Structure formats: structure tokens, C-alpha cells
């Protein structure tokens, strides 16, 4: 069964999540909040956020398989599921070879992890797999509830839906800058995208498959690339960009709001929620 995580959620680094913010996001109507930045296998942050809220789903985006063991994660999953049931979604992934000294046979490592999660009783429909390339997308569709994609475009979403077929979940991350000044918005988006993402082989290869040239990936990325990976504009413009993923086959889009240092993110979340989320 595909998990019900709503159409619109929020992806935010673990270091930028707080009890106060998660409560405001829940009040604004965001269905799911994704904990980014490879949260540890004890899943303590997810548990604390669930404890502080009433109905929002908490997902990990993603637990890195090189940083902990499947036994630890399975134990943590059951501890949380026993208290909060379907309000928790476990996202796991293989990360990037540039950040992992042991990055050997990643596909085999993912399948071993899934085997051990199966053996530990972690339900298939309460876990998703980070996926970009076709092979891992197909693994996500066959061994988990579906795929969680990151740093992609609606064209990638369309291709991924074709690979997954109609059944599995497709949850897509999309960066946004709530700013109508294109130069300022691109500067913020470029700073986040170039370092580290345009230095990571998995993302580079995926963008090349999508038709971007190597020249567009060099020297800070072309404006065309930055505009696609970090949508900018007013609430209506950003909402249109997020809906493009839904129209291309995504079930869920989790927006990653990029802000200037020290900027309060809540006004932007509120404006976007008013445009994106239907009142209950």
C-alpha cells in the first residue's frame, strides 16, 4: 500500500528544524516534513518531532546506509512505529562516493540493507529509497513503497514515473527561493547547488542524462540550470513549478526553502501554503 503523505511537504536540514518550527509547519497544513542531512540511525530527532506534533508525518531524507547499521535503524523504526504508527516514513539511501571512504558496491549494499530490514520486520510500505538512476529507481519500486528523488526536474520526474509504473510512491524534492529578484535569487540558489551538489558524481551524471551540457555544470552552473533546480519568484510562480512535478507523475513534492542568512522562513512557508495547500 502506498503511504499517504499528502501532496505537499517540506524538506529541511536536521540542523534547521526545531519544535517551534515543526508546530508552525503542521498548523500551516504541510502534510509531511522530511529530515534532511543524513540523520543518525537512532532516529531521535524524528521521535522528538513526532512527540511535539499531532498529525504531520515525519520522514527521513535520508538515513545514509554507510553511517549506521540496518539493525540499529530497524530497532529505531519499531520504537517509533509502536508509538506513532503510520506517521513515520523511513527514507534510506546510499549517499555519494565523494563523501564515503567505503563506497563499494553501493547497489549490493542497498539490497543487503533491504534484506535485513525485511528480516527485522520493517514494512515495505513504510520505507522509501533515495533514487536517481534507472537501476535504483527500479529497486525502489520493487522493494520499498517507492522513490525519493533529490535535485531533479519535472522531466526526471516524468522518466521516473515511467520506470516505477502507476503503483509506487514518487516523492520529489524541489528547492525554492521566495524572491522575485532573479539576480538575488539565483545567487542564493547557486551558492547552495554548486557546493556540494555540482561536485558529486551521482548528481552530475543525472543532470547530464537530463540534457544539460558539461559547460552548464561548470563555473557556477548556467542560469538555465539554476532556475530549474532552485525555483524562484512569487508564491504563484513557485506553486506552478511545484505542480509541474505533480503533473509529471509525482505523488508528493517536498519543497526545500532556501533563505538568506538569519531570515525567518515562516512568512515564506505561510505564503506558499496559502497558494499550494487546500484548506481542510
UniProtKB/TrEMBL annotation:
Pfam families per UniProt: Bac_luciferase (PF00296)
Q: Which organism is it from?
A: Nocardia iowensis
- PANTHER family tied to this protein: CONSERVED PROTEIN, LUCIFERASE-LIKE MONOOXYGENASE
State the protein's name.
Answer: LLM class F420-dependent oxidoreductase
Segment forming the signal sequence? none
Highest rank taxon of the organism? Bacteria
Query: Which intervals hold domain Luciferase-like?
Result: 21-100
Q: Which InterPro entries match?
A: Bact_Lucif_Oxidored (IPR050766), Lucif-like_OxRdatse_MSMEG_4141 (IPR019922), Luciferase-like_dom (IPR011251)
Amino acid at each position: 500500500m502506498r503511504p499517504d503523505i499528502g501532496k505537499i511537504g517540506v524538506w529541511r536540514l536536521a540542523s534547521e528544524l526545531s519544535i517551534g518550527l515543526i508546530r508552525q509547519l503542521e498548523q500551516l497544513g504541510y502534510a509531511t516534513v522530511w529530515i534532511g542531512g543524513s540523520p543518525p540511525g537512532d532516529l531521535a530527532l524524528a521521535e522528538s518531532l513526532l512527540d511535539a506534533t499531532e498529525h504531520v508525518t515525519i520522514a527521513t531524507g535520508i538515513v545514509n546506509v554507510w553511517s549506521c547499521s540496518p539493525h540499529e535503524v530497524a530497532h529505531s523504526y519499531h520504537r517509533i512505529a509502536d508509538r506513532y504508527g503510520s506517521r513515520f516514513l523511513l527514507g534510506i539511501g546510499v549517499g555519494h562516493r565523494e563523501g564515503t571512504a567505503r563506497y563499494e558496491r553501493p547497489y549490493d549494499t542497498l539490497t543487503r540493507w533491504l534484506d535485513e530490514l525485511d528480516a527485522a520486520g520493517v514494512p515495505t510500505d513504510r520505507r522509501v529509497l533515495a533514487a536517481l538512476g534507472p537501476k535504483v529507481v527500479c529497486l525502489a519500486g520493487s522493494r520499498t513503497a517507492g522513490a525519493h528523488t533529490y535535485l531533479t526536474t519535472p522531466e526526471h520526474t516524468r522518466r521516473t514515473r515511467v520506470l516505477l509504473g502507476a503503483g509506487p510512491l514518487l516523492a520529489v524534492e524541489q528547492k525554492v527561493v521566495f524572491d522575485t529578484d532573479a539576480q538575488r535569487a539565483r545567487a542564493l540558489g547557486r551558492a547552495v547547488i554548486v557546493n556540494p551538489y555540482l561536485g558529486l558524481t551521482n548528481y552530475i551524471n543525472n543532470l547530464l542524462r537530463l540534457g544539460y551540457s558539461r559547460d552548464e555544470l561548470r563555473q557556477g552552473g548556467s542560469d538555465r540550470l539554476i532556475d530549474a533546480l532552485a525555483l524562484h519568484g512569487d508564491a504563484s510562480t513557485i506553486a506552478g513549478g511545484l505542480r509541474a512535478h505533480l503533473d509529471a507523475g509525482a505523488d508528493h513534492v517536498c519543497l526545500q526553502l532556501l533563505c538568506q542568512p538569519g531570515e525567518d522562513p515562516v512568512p515564506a512557508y505561510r505564503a506558499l501554503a496559502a497558494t499550494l495547500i487546500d484548506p481542510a
